[in-house]
Amino acid sequence: MTQAPVKVAVTGAAGQIGYSLLFRIASGELLGPDTPVQLHLLEITPALKALEGVVMELDDCAFPLLSKVVIGDDATKVFDGVNLAMLVGARPRTAGMERGDLLSANGAIFTAQGKALNDVAADDVKILVTGNPANTNALIAMSNAPDIPAERFNALTRLDHNRAISQLAARLGVPVTEIKKMTIWGNHSATQYPDLFNAEVNGANAAEAVNDQGWIENDFIPTVAKRGAAIIAARGSSSAASAANATIGHMHDWVLGTPEGDWVSMSVPSDGSYGVPEGLISSFPCVVKDGKYEIVQGLEINDFSRAKIDASVAELADEKQAVTELGLI
Ligand code: NAD
Ligand code: LMR
User: Fold this and answer.
1) Are residues 119 and 139 in the same domain?
2) Which of 62, 180, 281, 300 lies deepest, with the highest CB count within 10 Å?
3) Is the domain of 205 the same as that of 150?
4) Locate the Lactate/malate dehydrogenase N-terminal domain: which residues (predicted)?
């Protein structure tokens, strides 16, 4: 193996998602069986001891592709030279916290991390935000990193995308592999819009295959959009392995490309496509080639879809307004 290792940063590395994510990155699932990786793990000071335990477990796996692990609580040291950054660590909402408090607490994290990435990351860095509120956290980091091209900041809606595929496949009694061209539009929140009108099942239109607008409106969309809350209610903590799986899937495809004849949902800075105001980090159908994504153009948006997309985008605009007022962007 002669290739230089790819430096992969993960924040919140001692958390739930980290515990699933790190082992899969180190085993080669992110970048394939021929690419060595070096992990750069960021945590807050009180979690460093737990992180040391996770690193002991990484050591104990003797992963052939894992060349080195760097840990710390100083973003400007941990992000030094990183090529890929997965920003997972965030401040969860706790009892009595208002939305503004959550945006403000996370704003402090993502302004600092955006600045640190701006100063010390590799020139080719790609940044994916998983920590909630993911789209607006990504916007904050992007706004605080003026030297990094805006399109290198993405947020995670791949989990919603995978949830939508799974729900549709179950409804139609087909394997998930027969579902293509799923799209999540908008925000990673309960307003997101999973679109069946442009999706395909075995080459046929998915909405036509379902042929039940009532199920789409009253069952499919709310089930996908509120799945995170359903998992919290059932498990007592938020999705972790599926969130790690989606984080790997997004970054894998962003680096290595999307499959021919399909697309994935990625939250990316809008270029104005589909009437989404420029600059908002919103979910779109995207294809990736040679490490660069493009928003799929020319899809038909019917009136039902238009209203749903507009509602989720309005929520993103509200969040942007709130963090602007807080002086975070
Ligand atoms: P967790 O609480 O188990 O872990 C979060 C970790 O982040 C903790 O170890 C904490 O110490 C660390 N952290 C906090 N502030 C930090 C900072 N400034 N720098 C570095 N690390 C910091 O949470 P989790 O279950 O791993 O979830 C992480 C985030 O991902 C949450 O915001 C959650 O809501 C979000 N999430 C997003 C999706 C999605 O699809 N976008 C899905 C699931 C969860
Ligand atoms: C999820 O979608 O599972 C997470 O974003 C958790 C949540 O708060 O919904």
Assistant:
1) yes
2) 281
3) no
4) 6-149
End-to-end, the C-alpha distance of the chain in Å comes to: 43
Q: Would the CB of 15 count as within 6 Å of ligand 1?
A: yes
Same domain assignment for residues 151 and 168: no
Catalytic residue (one of 40, 161, 188, 250): 188
- Pair (301, 235) in one structural domain: yes
Distance, in Å, from the CA atom of 196 to the CA atom of 192, rounded to the nearest integer, reads 13
CA dist list (Å): 289 to 49, 152, 253, 260, 268: 40, 14, 9, 10, 15
Are 14 and 144 in a shared domain?
yes
Number of folded domains in the chain?
Answer: 2
Query: What value of ipTM does the predicted structure carry?
Result: 0.99
User: Is the shortest distance between the CB of 11 and ligand 1 below 6 Å?
Assistant: yes
User: What is the Å distance from ligand 2's center to 68 Cα?
Assistant: 31
CATH (domain of 246): 3.90.110.10
Catalytic residue check, 252: no
What is the reported pTM?
0.98
Burial of 326 (0-12, 13-18, 19+ CB in 10 A): middle
For atom 4 of ligand 2, the residue with the nearest CA is 228
Residue 240 alpha carbon, nearest atom of ligand 1: 25
Q: What CATH number should be reported for the domain holding residue 51?
A: 3.40.50.720
Structural domain boundaries, residue 47: 6-155
- For residue 158, which atom of ligand 1 is closest to its CA? 40
- pLDDT, tens digit, for every residue of 17-38? 999 999 999 999 999 999 999 9
**Dihedral sign, CA of 195, 196, 202, 203?**
negative
Residue numbers in the known binding site for substrate are: 93, 99, 132, 163
Same domain, 183 and 256: yes
DSSP state of 151: G
Residue 190 scores a pLDDT above 70: yes
With a 6 Å cutoff on the Cβ, whether 156 touches ligand 1 is yes
Q: Encode pLDDT of 287-312 as tens digits.
A: 999 999 999 999 999 999 999 999 99
